[in-house]
Design goal:
The protein is α/β, with parallel strands linked by helices and 213 residues long. The chain has a single domain, classed as Peptidyl-tRNA hydrolase (Rossmann fold, 3-Layer(aba) Sandwich), CATH 3.40.50.1470. It has six helices and seven strands, in the order E-H-E-E-E-H-E-E-H-E-H-H-H. It has a seven-stranded mixed sheet with strand order 2-3-4-1-5-7-6.
Length: 213
């Protein structure tokens, strides 16, 4: 008797969430790279974002590259309560957790690196802890954007880490990050067209440097 090998179902995001903190003082900080990524997607795909009180964030929807409907969300709840806004959208539209893709900063990844995954733990990130708590699972895709460690990471205490995460990129780093954000758009367009798993091969293998312009 021949064994039927079932192909795993394609994971195609329906809601893309960028994590960050509201308030002007957090604009352009490393910790807000999820917001910056979502704003880049919004511009690239011409999906305007507007404050939506029901969803506790800035929200927009439109047609994704590849033809399906896509929804974008920037929670305005502060990072450690991001899950509330995400759950508000998933509950309203009755979306399964695996249809949510979350973009956020990762200090353990060097600048220029991105990591796309189908599931995983919060890794100490408060926004992800909240998302996992509200979605009641770790099984949803996420894209981490490297923000690098503080310069003297070995001797750094919590305050050094906090000032690094809430600090801004240098001019050279800003140039590099704008290239990274363009690459993020490519990764997500591939995720929408061919599924997250296929896109992982591309997104996890490249390092974006300033020379790539």
């Amino acid at each position: 008797m021949t064994e039927v090998v079932t192909q795993p179902a394609l994971v195609i995001p329906q809601l893309i969430v960028g994590l960050g903190n509201p308030e002007a003082k957090y604009d352009q900080t490393r910790h807000n790279i999820g917001f910056a990524a979502l704003e880049t997607l919004s511009r690239s795909w011409r999906i305007s974002l507007a404050e939506n009180r029901k969803f506790q964030g800035e929200y927009g929807e439109g047609m994704a590259p590849g033809g399906g409907k896509i929804r974008l969300l920037k929670p305005l709840t502060y990072m450690n309560r991001s899950g509330q806004a995400i759950q508000a959208v998933t509950s309203w539209y009755k979306m399964p957790p695996e249809s949510v893709l979350i973009i956020y900063d990762d200090m353990d990844l060097p600048l220029g690196k991105t990591r796309l995954r189908l599931s995983g733990s919060a890794g100490g990130h408060n926004g992800m802890k909240s998302a996992i708590a509200h979605l009641s699972t770790q099984n949803f895709p996420r894209l981490r954007i490297g923000i690098g460690k503080p310069k003297d990471a070995a001797n750094n205490d919590d305050s050094g880490t906090i000032s690094h995460v809430l600090g801004r990129f240098s001019a050279a780093e800003n140039q590099q990050m704008s290239l990274v954000l363009q690459f993020v758009v490519e990764c997500l367009e591939l995720s929408l067209k061919q599924g997250v798993e296929k896109a992982m091969n591309v997104c996890n293998s490249r390092t974006i440097n300033n020379s790539e312009s």
